[in-house]
Design a protein that fits this description.
The chain is an alpha/beta fold. It has 16 helices and 13 strands. It folds into two domains: 145 residues, Aspartate Aminotransferase, domain 1, CATH 3.90.1150.10; 239 residues, 3-Layer(aba) Sandwich (Aspartate Aminotransferase, domain 2), CATH 3.40.640. It binds pyridoxal-5'-phosphate (PLP).
């Protein structure tokens, strides 16, 4: 017989915040997948391990601790080491941006920057304007703030100032967006900047992929366009995010935010309660990597390898899954975004069965908090070699077949009504 008094007096246990019930399983599945033997992982935006400059960075790290023990091993200033803030500012000045150290906040890479932006700009229910789909990690970072999202409609030619009006901020990834790989054109960049100025809305430019261009020349960033004719960034509507993750080593967790001094002060206040200060050793390593030209030294190898892999993945897609998916070849970045021709396919099931068949792909859904994007998948080409990319696409084709998807079954409309309405 059950003793009711025991049950009734049992403590209720921890009560977790409601937003935790809404997290997406995508990131944790990616991390868990790394340990499955033989799995071809096309899901995460991971660097090829051969490109990490281990020898150079280990020498830099050892010397940095000896030369700057207090910077590396003691507490540091919340907004970042003065030398790194100045070195980052210098690199932007070389590109025509009138940045000073006071315009730079050092972060634990892009992820902390996104988190801090959510903290300083949003209270529950506020609107964030962005392209849908956009980076799932940004939506994850802002989920505790409970925002609502408004699709900007850049590619559909919407009135951008009207779409930005009243939003806490606008979020854009102009260079080779994650997940779509789309490169925002110069004309679109100018329209975005003009709309930010008209609407008075801060425009966050998230730029982890700017250096990863495989065709043609890089376009000016929104920050560079906004800097034209300006002596300082005091009235700049752009908040620019960058990091070492995609051009040097994501494990260093070094990134930066460039913005007006007032915004940097607010971010620093939010950061104080978040981490007190950034990792000093990683910051000292970043200063050295920038001052010695290590980043530029690594760049040509990264570009050559990723360009070849981008080409190999797109060729393998055409060979194996061209009857099931359509895509645009990205001019840079790490991802190819595929829209399923048959919109009745259950993408979650495709991902699960694909994983059982030995290939991990990313589902489109975590990139779309409004549920307006047709069934889609995201494929990363940076981590696996060309043979694996081909084998991965062959496995995915087998998975489509096993699910009974008809090749060439085109139920995808010419334009998605929900994106144009
Ligand atoms: C668009 C975008 N922003 C930010 C990040 C965060 O990366 P990190 O925290 O390594 O800088 C990523 C990572 O893939 C990304 O794709």
């Amino acid at each position: 017989m059950t003793d009711r008094s025991l049950i009734d007096s049992r403590p209720a246990g921890p009560r977790f915040a409601p937003w935790l019930a809404k997290t997406n399983p995508f990131t944790s599945r990616n991390i868990a997948a790394a340990s499955i033997p033989g799995l071809i992982n096309l899901s995460g935006g991971m660097p090829d391990p051969s490109l990490l400059p281990a020898k150079a960075l280990s020498a830099i790290a050892a010397q940095a601790i000896l030369d700057y023990p207090d910077d590396c091993l003691g507490y540091g200033p919340t907004p970042g080491l003065a030398d790194l803030r100045e070195t980052v500012a210098q690199r932007f000045r070389a590109r025509g941006v009138p940045a000073k150290a006071e315009n730079v906040l050092i972060t634990a890479s892009g992820t902390q920057a996104l988190d801090l932006l959510g903290k300083i700009f949003t209270t529950s229910g506020d609107t964030i304007a962005c392209e849908i789909p956009s980076y799932a990690g940004a939506f994850d970072a802002w989920r505790p703030r409970n925002p609502t999202y408004r699709h900007l409609g850049l590619r559909e030619g919407r009135d951008l100032a009207a779409r930005m009006a009243g939003a806490a901020f606008t979020y854009m990834i102009p260079n080779f967006s994650n997940p779509t790989g789309y490169l925002v054109t110069l004309e679109e960049r100018q329209k975005l900047l003009a709309a930010a100025r008209v609407s008075g809305t801060p425009l966050v430019e998230d730029d982890p992929y700017g250096a990863l261009f495989y065709d043609g020349e890089p376009l000016p960033t929104l920050l560079e366009l906004a800097s034209k004719g300006q002596e300082n960034l005091d009235d700049c509507p752009i908040i620019h995010l960058g990091s070492l993750s995609k051009q040097l080593a994501p494990g260093m967790r070094v990134g930066w935010i460039i913005a007006a001094p007032e915004t940097i002060r607010m971010l620093s206040t939010a950061k104080q309660a978040s981490d007190m200060c950034s990792n000093g050793l990683a910051q000292r390593m970043a200063v050295k990597a920038m001052q010695t030209g290590l980043i530029e030294e690594c760049h040509p190898r990264i570009i050559a390898l990723y360009r070849a892999r981008r080409n190999a993945l797109c060729a393998a897609m055409a060979r194996h899954i061209g009857d099931y998916v359509r895509w645009e070849v990205p001019a840079g970045g790490m991802f190819v975004w595929g829209t399923l021709l048959d919109t009745t396919v259950d993408v979650e099931r495709l991902v699960d069965l694909g994983m059982q068949a030995g290939v991990l792909i990313g589902p489109g859904e975590p990139f779309d908090p409004l549920g307006i994007v047709p069934p889609s998948i995201r494929l990363s080409f940076t981590y696996c070699d060309e043979a694996k990319l081909d084998q991965g696409m062959a496995r995915l084709a087998q998975t489509f077949k096993a699910m009974g998807v008809q090749p060439g079954a085109r139920t995808y409309p010419a334009t998605s009504p929900s994106l144009t309405s």
